[in-house]
Design brief:
One of its GO terms (cellular component) is cytosol. The chain is an alpha/beta fold. The chain contains 22 helices and 15 strands. Helix 7 runs parallel beside helix 12, helix 12 crosses helix 13 and helix 14 packs across helix 19. It is globular, with a radius of gyration of 26 Å. Bound molecules: 6-O-phosphono-beta-D-fructofuranose.
Length: 559
């Protein structure tokens, strides 16, 4: 396979799409009025997801050209290369195999990559995670005093935090008695406040770090270890000896990492560590052992259902023709909005309170993957890349930022996500509250698509001078995603859907969506600046005037 990305802007499809964009007069009202089949024709199914694309600002011709563009940049070839284990993470010379984490046991043909029996290793590690989760859940795993675990604290950041915390929140109805808490930020407030009220004898820490070299995670892990030792000693649960402290760590700390040597150096027994592999990117790692905390919370059976959900979407993506393929169509629609309609951002609006961390999770997935300005061969990109993903659950967002989506000057494509069956089927008198909630979802997508004309505003008796302020242009694109319920499988399907959307966009732009060099500089500088913050005069003087001024302000005002 060529190592030079195909420049999408030189393809015939791109050229034609530009012409269609120039001629386009968006009119969703008219398109729906004159084409009663539009909604049905532009609705797709992927696994349990029902995806209505009809309120997007595209004609059938444009959608057809977007499919052609996907073909002309060899999306099919790149997809096969990913699933096969080719080193498509070029800048790190690695395979990209998060899809292997969710292959079912016994899948054929077996996946062997770079001499590694990937299937065997994945199944062995998954079995280990599940067995451990069962031990913790059953109370067979105890702390130093023999007490079972009541709270699990996952210490990690980025992909080693966002996936587990988002999924735990999403699957709360499936969680057992063990509470999960999460520490990620190096702001000492995070660890201090998260663990302050915990009983050390019933607390288990999971240090989750792919590299086991991340400053935030290792700092927080050391702080948690100190807290454990101090509070256990204060409760006379351990003696003030090295042996006693080591024994406490063995019962209260486990690790998840690809760097098991560093886990041991930290003091965690490698038999209490769960591994994964360099071909799993941090932001793609929740279906790996990084999901250990989640497996404890929801149990091994549900965790396997979660993985099966991912696999359902993987298979849909890998095998479905492009014009029926939901991740391909949604990814190509994003390309349409970014590259042809000048959209800079993309809203993800879950109408499901349990998905309240989903937009934050997607921010790392999408923006760490596609926030790039060079292609995988090192050449500059030829078009805009990487829109900003953001969002909040409905209906909270409606009372905050929807004004701008409805009537602002920016085009903001939005994905609306909801489930048919509520976690809490409450009634307010006669009213089913979930139905009121869904009515808001449907009302918003309708208003965004069809707007409100000046004549309609006038017909309500509105004074002429405020008519224009009350007009809604409409033609604001949305995709509506619905599922029967927010089960572990559906959550896996949703996550995999967005993983593949991100991949599709990255291929069109020629990106290596699996490295993240852009976060390295800041990390390195933080280490270099730390002595200056601590008062080292030479280090302070070595800073630029702005940074020096900020450090001096800090030093003068710190109480
Ligand atoms: O933010 C950069 C990054 O490397 C992410 O990609 C990753 O998820 C996060 O840091 C945490 O890394 P680790 O799991 O190695 O601690």
């Amino acid at each position: 396979m060529s190592t030079t990305p195909i420049d999408a802007t030189t393809t015939a499809a791109w050229h034609e799409l530009s012409q269609h964009r120039d001629a386009l007069r968006p009119d969703l009202r008219e398109w729906f009025a004159s084409d009663p089949d539009r909604a049905q024709r532009l609705t797709r199914t992927a696994g349990d997801l029902h995806v209505d694309l009809s309120k997007n600002v595209v004609t059938d011709e444009i959608l057809g050209l977007l499919v052609q563009l996907a073909e002309q940049v060899d999306l099919g070839g790149r997809t096969e290369a990913m699933f096969r284990g080719d080193h498509i993470n070029v800048t790190e010379d690695r395979a990209v195999l998060h899809t292997a984490l969710r292959r079912p046991e016994g899948a054929e043909p077996r996946l062997t990559v770079d001499g590694q029996d990937v299937d065997a290793d994945v199944q062995a590690e998954l079995a280990k995670v599940c067995a451990f989760a069962e031990q913790v859940r059953s109370g067979a795993w105890t702390g130093v005093t023999g007490a079972p675990v009541k709270t699990v604290v996952n210490i990690g950041i980025g992909g080693s935090d966002l996936g587990p915390v988002m999924a735990y929140e999403a699957l709360k109805p499936y969680a057992g008695d063990i509470e999960l808490r999460f520490v990620s930020n190096i702001d000492p407030t995070d660890v201090a406040e998260t663990i302050a009220d915990l009983d050390p004898t019933t607390t288990l820490f999971i240090v989750a770090s792919k590299t086991f070299g991340t400053l935030e995670t290792l700092t927080n892990a050391r702080l948690a270890r100190e807290w454990l030792w101090e509070t256990l000693a204060a409760a006379d649960a351990i003696e003030n000896t090295d042996a006693s402290r080591t024994a406490a760590v063995a019962k209260h700390f486990v690790a998840v990492s690809t760097a098991l040597d560093k886990v041991e150096a930290f003091g965690i027994d490698p038999t209490n560590a769960f591994g994964f592999w360099d071909w799993v990117g941090g932001r793609y790692s929740v279906p790996s052992a990084i999901g250990t905390s989640l497996a404890i919370a929801i149990g091994p059976e549900r965790f396997r259902e979660f993985l099966a959900g991912f696999h359902t979407m993987d298979e849909h993506f890998r095998t479905t023709p492009f014009h029926q393929n939901v991740p391909v169509l949604m990814g190509m629609l994003n390309v349409w909005y970014v590259n042809f309609m000048d959209a800079h951002t993309h809203a993800v609006l879950p109408y499901a309170q349990h998905l309240h961390r989903f937009p934050a999770y997607l921010q790392q997935l999408t923006m760490e993957s596609n926030g790039k300005s060079v292609r995988w061969d090192g050449s500059p990109v030829t078009t805009a890349t990487g829109e900003v993903f953001w969002g909040e659950p409905g209906t909270n967002g409606q009372h905050a930022f929807y004004q701008l989506i409805h009537q602002g000057t920016r085009l903001i494509p939005a994905d609306f996500i909801a489930v048919a069956t509520p976690a809490h089927p409450l009634r307010d008198g006669e009213a089913d509250v979930h139905e009121l909630f869904l009515a808001n979802f449907f009302a918003q997508t309708k208003a965004l698509a069809f707007g409100k004309t000046a004549d309609e505003v006038r017909a309500e008796g509105t004074a002429e001078e405020v008519v224009s302020a009350r007009v809604f242009e409409g033609n604001r694109p949305t995709t509506s995603i619905m599922a029967p319920a927010l089960t572990p499988s559906v959550l896996g399907q949703l996550i995999a859907l967005y993983e593949h959307i991100t991949f599709v966009e990255g291929i069109v732009w020629g990106l290596d969506s699996f490295d993240q060099w852009g976060v390295e500089l800041g990390k390195k500088l933080a280490t270099e600046i730390a002595p200056a913050v601590g008062g080292d005069t030479a280090a302070i003087e070595a800073q630029d005037p702005s940074t020096r001024g900020l450090i001096e302000y800090y030093r003068a005002n710190r109480k």
